[in-house]
Specification:
2 copies of one chain form a homodimer. The first copy, chain A, is an alpha+beta fold. The first copy, chain A, contains 9 helices and 11 strands. In chain A, the strands form 2 sheets. In chain A, strands 1, 2, 3, 4, 5, 6 and 7 form a 7-stranded mixed sheet that branches. Chain A has a 4-stranded antiparallel sheet with strand order 9-10-8-11. At the A-B interface, helix 7, strand 11, helix 8 and helix 9 of A face helix 7, strand 11, helix 8 and helix 9 of B.
């Protein structure tokens, strides 16, 4: 069963009726399964999560982008989160039976279609990027919608598809392919947020740790717990087990233990199977031995 | 998605054409997915593993029992494994969306149908048993086919369904419901089989360990590895992680480490998720957070 997950972000998080219309464009496509919808008013942004076969996902993402272009006017959009357009960012994520390369190909097809049929400039990012710089979404969104109006004319900021100017209401869209991101929190047996911050610095790529890890130290007020809040951006490179063990070892250096950990939202089965295999020292194990996985195969 | 796994054992392991006909009766039922087939010549016995929705599984198990009754003559059957009939034992195992109680109900319906329509006496066992004694399959099969011919007339050996005499060619059938069984081996960093045997004794129910665990100590000749070979009969009672940690702790008492472990065949996803959750100290985790699991739900 070929399945791709798509997690588009739209620049509307305050008017539920608009978000519902966009979500409706997604679910109208046969074979699409809606997994989640969430809106954030202060970011004025919504995230829709859905899965399906590659062709259906492409169709649904295109249709939602078209609907967002009709309903969202970037000229009047305000919000805290960086953004360049109505359908701001569209990542494609391999779930089963498809490779990252398949997602890259699909992202480029989708980008071309959005650019040509909707007249919205498209930037390819992460695994789908055509240049090293655009692998980084932050570089693509630099200056955001307001500054990109001018910047799009500069050679280094030319879009990969579509016109050389922003769409009058929908702005621009970033389309990419990436591995699944796992939101993972580790709670320390301490209320000292400084320790959580030091541990976060030791594991995250931006301060010399694992390049695929993002992390912050925070205090969970209601329980008085210092927490390392983590994005595991490529669990195949750095697994949950390795993150957990590294945090445990760093915490021990401050005489602090691990109270618990939490997975926020969804994660691929393989990420947990890998952790079980790590601790149980499983040899020769493959996910086809998992009954539920076997049932979806042929 | 309601799914039950069925793993019937048939008293034929030497004539592949007979086994194929029985398997064909299973796959002829729409909605059934064949997962595995294996035959053992010395046991003269075959195991077929399939899954499907409850009604389809009942139909397929009935149809395979009927076919086995046509093709297998217990009067001429010889083999090392204990058996009472052509379709010797039919366990039903909850996989997803069904409870053990659902499997018990289905096992009793299936048993009644086999007894009444095929004239084969049926004994309910394990979770489906009507008496404490018959929970134990060994008690149901005591004396095997040959001695059961007489014993079936004794009050304590009366079948739960069907006639008070063995079927002339098909004998009797045991129908039950049970949790999934996981075949799990732990390899010691030692070639001393005596240590593996001592560890096996310390964990298995029959010598005072965990009631849901069966275990033996063996020597894997080709690698010179002492191995604890284990049946985890109810991973919800005693998890893979607890078995691993108990074996590790017992091995340490002899100054021996764990080299690796292996899962033989299939296992439910939950058994590995539980292990990951144990080691990662996950709180508030539920299997609906697993993308693949979520995709099969509604």
């Amino acid at each position: 069963m070929k399945l791709i997950e798509c997690v588009p972000n739209f620049s509307e998080g305050r008017r539920p009726e608009i978000v519902q219309e966009i979500a409706g464009a997604v679910t109208a496509v046969p074979g699409i399964k809606m997994l989640d919808q969430s809106s954030d008013a202060s970011h004025n942004r919504s995230v829709i999560t859905f899965v399906g076969a590659p062709a259906a996902v492409k169709k649904a993402a295109f249709s939602a982008t078209q609907k967002a272009a009709e309903l969202i006017d970037m000229e009047s959009h305000r919000g805290e989160h960086p953004r360049i357009g109505a359908a701001d960012v569209i990542p494609l994520i391999p779930v089963s039976g498809v490779s990252m390369e398949d997602c890259v190909v699909l992202a480029r097809e989708l980008g071309q279609e959005i650019g040509e049929k909707l007249g919205i400039p498209v930037y390819l990012y992460e695994e789908a990027a055509l240049t090293a710089e655009r692998k980084n979404l932050a570089a693509v969104r630099r200056g955001e919608y307001e500054k990109l109006k001018e910047a799009i004319g500069q050679p280094g900021r030319h879009p990969d598809f579509g016109p050389l100017r922003l769409h009058p209401t929908a702005g621009a869209t970033a389309v990419g392919a990436r591995p699944p991101l796992i939101a993972y929190n580790i709670n320390l047996d301490s209320s000292d947020v400084q320790i959580a911050r030091k541990i976060a610095r030791s594991i995250r790529g931006s301060s010399g740790g694992y390049p695929s890890i993002k992390a912050l130290g925070v205090l969970i007020e209601e329980t008085g717990t210092a927490q390392v809040t983590i994005n595991v951006c490529n669990y195949r490179l750095v697994s949950l087990a390795r993150v957990f063990e590294t945090v445990k070892s760093e915490a021990a250096r401050y005489g602090v233990g691990i109270k618990s950990s939490e997975i926020v939202g969804l994660l691929p089965m393989e990420a947990l199977l890998d952790s079980a295999a790590f601790y149980l020292r499983l040899q020769g194990f493959h996910s086809g031995q998992v009954l539920e996985k076997r049932l979806t195969e042929n």
